[in-house]
Amino acid sequence: MLRGKGLAALTDPVLKAAALEDIRSRWQVKGWWDEPPGKSAKQAKVFYLG
């Protein structure tokens, strides 16, 4: 889920928002949010941002 489109599978809006916030916080800790590592991570970030 951290680097893929698994977030799209969530249908509950509250759960989806919580998962997105968790993903963002984990990416920020790893330094991935500003500089995603690899093509799939860059595509995932675009997807997460909507």
Offer a few descriptive terms:
single chain; 50 residues; mainly alpha; 2 helices; 58% helix; globular
Please explain how this structure is put together.
The chain is mainly α and 50 residues long. The protein has one domain (6-49). The protein is built from two helices and no strands. It is globular, with a radius of gyration of 10 Å.
Produce the secondary structure layout.
Layout: H1 13-30, H2 39-49
Q: Looking at the structure, what is the overall shape? A: globular
Beta-strand content estimate:
under 5%
Could you state the order of secondary-structure elements as H and E?
HH
Number of helices: 2
Calculate the mean pLDDT score and round it.
79
Give the % helix.
55-70%
Describe the structure concisely:
With 50 residues, this protein is mainly alpha-helical. It has helices spanning 13-30, 39-49.
